[in-house]
Design goal:
The protein has 287 residues and is of the alpha+beta class. The chain contains 10 helices and 9 strands. A hairpin with a 2-residue loop joins β3 and β4. It comes from Brevibacterium rongguiense.
């Protein structure tokens, strides 16, 4: 973290300690010991959506900056989002600092710099940012997270899905992953990422995109197989899945082929062992 950013972070978090503000964004990930990407600004976010409480906290942080001899210029001011520029007349240093609202599943961590978004929430938020905007810094941060071994690719997607209104569309996400190749060397150099590491990031997301596409294709094939089997059995897809799930629980070795429909009124579905060709077996896939 840049020294001026650390100064602003400490001042702000102490001033807003009673209002649930924590360090968020890319700096939250690096504060947990993952990567060391420098940022252009500081994000201090809360999960308290009360506008009055939010305004009180922001005013307290403004006062802390002013008392420290810093100058404040407003950029954006709204009920639950404020973007200001803070500068030091003595040194000429300046930075944007954003105050906003975020979603949390976990209790923030108390680290040396102050309260910080839990790593799981920080990663989920960063993956959501990659999904929605796909800036170079988002790709760098997610690459660092997975490269560190803290989480797997599957775990990162699952955590992000929890924060989205709907799970991220995997086909569209694969396209987003490949879009990282459009960034120039200068875009990565801004974050002290050289050409060799940039290539590693691009190749990493290209491989991930391929994996997602393969999974989507497998799921599509499986969906078609289930639909065809359900139609052949005279059931809806949901009924067919329910029947096979119950049979798998009670008689895991009994399903040798597609389930046939009722043979008469009120008769329960049964397995078709006489005419099993094996065409419906062995087509599982890894999710």
């Amino acid at each position: 973290m840049r020294s001026f950013h650390e100064r602003l972070t400490r001042l702000g978090l102490v001033a807003a300690a009673e209002h649930g503000f924590v360090l968020a964004g890319g700096y939250a990930i690096s504060a947990h010991g993952i990567g060391n990407r420098l940022s252009a600004d500081v994000d201090l976010f809360t999960n308290d959506a009360d506008p009055q409480t939010f305004a009180t906290a922001v005013n307290d942080m403004r006062q802390a900056f002013t008392d420290a001899g810093l100058t404040i210029t407003d950029t954006t001011v709204s009920p639950l989002f404020v973007d200001i520029n803070v500068s030091d007349p003595q040194t000429g240093e300046s930075s944007d600092i954003q105050f906003g609202l975020n979603y949390r599943d976990f209790t923030p961590a108390n680290l040396d710099v102050g309260p910080v978004l839990d790593l799981r929430d920080a990663v989920a938020s960063k993956m959501s940012a990659l999904w929605s905007r796909g800036e170079a810094r988002d790709f760098i941060d997610i690459y660092n997270v997975i490269d560190s071994g803290a989480f797997t690719r599957t775990e990162v997607l699952e955590m992000a899905d929890q924060q989205e209104a709907q799970p991220m569309d995997r086909e569209m996400l694969a396209e987003r992953f490949t879009s990282v190749a459009r960034y120039a060397t200068d875009d990565f150099a801004e974050y002290d990422v050289g050409p060799s590491q940039q290539r590693a990031v691009v190749e990493f997301f290209a491989d991930w995109a391929t994996a997602l596409t393969s999974e989507e294709n497998a799921e599509s094939l499986e969906g078609e197989r289930v639909t065809e089997a359900a139609q052949a059995a005279g059931m809806s897809v949901d009924e067919y899945r329910d029947v096979t799930a119950r049979l798998n629980r009670t008689h895991p070795d009994s399903i040798q082929g597609p389930i046939t429909g009722p043979q008469g009124a009120g008769e329960s579905p049964r397995t078709n062992r006489t005419h099993d060709t094996g065409a419906e077996r062995g087509r599982g896939y890894e999710r």
